[in-house]
Design brief:
By secondary structure, the chain is of the alpha+beta class. It is 38% helix and 12% strand.
């Protein structure tokens, strides 16, 4: 797996090839990929998440590449139907990551202390494996290279 967010020529690849590149880059399983490509929600589940559900709305999921944030590379998932937004985000991230740019090589981000609590529902088939992945990522985030 490469930790670099550069995906030169990614837009020229077919969708299945892009999926394979991302799957290999971030260690996705076939099940992870299937979850991302089938929409993820049933009407019954959507109805339990919010009130007044009448349907589901699927939009494309793309990857914005080239992001260097606080010295670390990121591939940014973007669910959007607006043309060129993912390409524009990837392009500006490529410009900003250049060490000779005014930002000095990437984005710098910080956050104030949280003021709210959020809730996210994640559907998994194997709770133990999911827990181990989350804990492994926590350890990785606490000990950056």
């Amino acid at each position: 797996m490469s930790d670099n967010s550069r995906l030169s020529g990614f837009f020229n690849l077919s969708v299945p090839v892009r999926q394979n590149v991302i799957r290999a880059r971030v260690n996705l399983t076939e099940n992870d990929l299937a979850t991302m490509t089938r929409g993820g929600l049933t009407l019954d589940l959507a109805n339990r998440l919010i009130e007044n559900v009448i349907g589901l709305h699927g939009i494309p999921l793309g990857i914005a590449a080239n992001f260097l944030i606080n010295g670390r590379d990121y591939l940014i998932p973007m669910a959007i139907e607006e043309p060129s937004v993912v390409a524009a985000a990837s392009h500006i991230a490529k410009l900003v990551r250049d060490p000779s740019s005014r930002s000095g090589g990437g984005f710098i981000a910080s956050a104030d202390a949280p003021m709210m609590i959020g809730q996210v529902q994640v559907l998994v088939n194997d709770v133990d494996a999911a827990r181990e992945k989350i804990l492994a990522e926590r350890r990785r985030m606490q000990n950056p290279r």
